[in-house]
Every structure is written in C-alpha cells, then in structure tokens.
Amino acid sequence: MSDNITLERREAGISIVTLARSEARNALTFAMMRRLRAVIEEIERDRECRVIVLAAAGRTFCAGLDLKDAVFGPEAPQGAIGSMALQELYAGTIPRLRRMPQPIIAAVQGAAVGAGMGLALAADIRIASPSANFLVGAVKVGLSAGECGISYHLPRLVGAGRAFEIMLTGRAVAAEEALAIGLTSRIVPEAQLLDDAVTTARAIAANSPYASKHTKQVMWANLEAPSLDAAMELENHVQTVAMLTGDFKEAAKAFAEKRPPNFKGT
User: Is residue 85 part of a domain?
Assistant: First the structure.
C-alpha cells in the first residue's frame, strides 16, 4: 500500500508527492492516509526540501475517501469513537499540510472530490489541467459539505457567497470556472501539468529559504488578522529578522554586482 503514495526528489529543493492509485481514481484508503502523513513528516524534517508538488497519477486527482474501505473494509469504524478516529485521520492531515514550512503546489487533473478537494485547497497554489473539476461530494451522500477544511479554505479563496452555493448544491466547478473565481492560478495542457508545477516550484526555490517559508506563514496568519495594524506588526517582525540574515546581505551584494544571489539559508 505504501506504493500508493510516492515521494520523489525531482531536483535540488523540490519534492514531488504523488497519489498513485490510479486504478481506483486515487481514492484514499486508511493505509494511504497513514502513508501520506508519514511522507509529510519526513519532508517536514528535510532541510533540503524547499517546495512540495502534490500530484496524482492517472486521469483523476483524487476521488476522495474510499467508501468501500471506510464502510466495509477490515478497519471500518464501529461506533462513535472509531468514527471520530477515522475523521481525525483524514481531516487531521489538512492542518499538517498548512503548517508545512515548504510552500505546496497542487497539480490537479480530473476530479478533486471531497477529501481530494480538501487536499487541493490546503495547498498554497493550485495549477489545473483543462479536465480538472472540484466537487464537494459529501453533501450528495447525506453528509455535511464541511469536511477536510473545505468550509474554511473555500470561502477564503472564492468568497463566502460562491462557497455557499458550491457547497450547498454539491455541483462540480470545472477548470475554466475555477480559474475565473480564483480557485486555481492557471490552466495548462495536461501533458504539461507536472512540468509547469515543477517550473513554478523552481521559481520559489530560487528565493531564500527564509523568504519563502515566512511569506507562506505571514500570508496564512494574516488571513486571520483582526486588523491592518496586527497584520503589519507581524510583517514588521518578520521583515526585521530577514534583514539580519546572511541571505539578505548576499542578495544586496548580488544586486550591486549585477549577478544572481547565492542563497545558503543563513
């Protein structure tokens, strides 16, 4: 089952995590989620990894929770305690992704359903192929559409009004609409999707480790800032520390010497 989540270090600073159960539309089993959590923890400890690309094999990004595994499988929960453990395994992965110091780019082709949509929304950047579509799913089977962080992330990405309509109807959001409402950054041909995501990752990795890590942290923190003053207080703190780093001094020197900077993460 561990082969259903693969980890590839494509080049310096860039790791690719792939959902690799294409024969089942990358539906997420218990074993896959445990493996994904382990991979996340491994990357979080990897000081050489600067950016993560979250990709998927086959024609579908992720069909969400594997209902056969969750309801009829050998680990299917019995009672409230078991059901909560299942929920925590799946949903608990979302804040772990958000807390990762590395920016995450989701390369989405085909359907991103339920927990799969939750994974895509937890990424910092989403790049889509023309076949991509985002679908809440749960509301169609008698469950709340609020799962795996969707009720938190979706309104922050597309606005509360659109999020209510999408979540209450359970309708799919196709690639063109996703681009128009800000759910994705761009649409690229499917054959180029992973390469485009890696190119974006490369551009992020070219910046200093401090700059990319703390830009991600400041952005997410200030989405919750109670005021402009509070947001700027955090910015000022992060920026002041940045000006004391060796990488900032190197960048200033490189600018003066008209050459690319050589960042060392110091």
Answer: yes
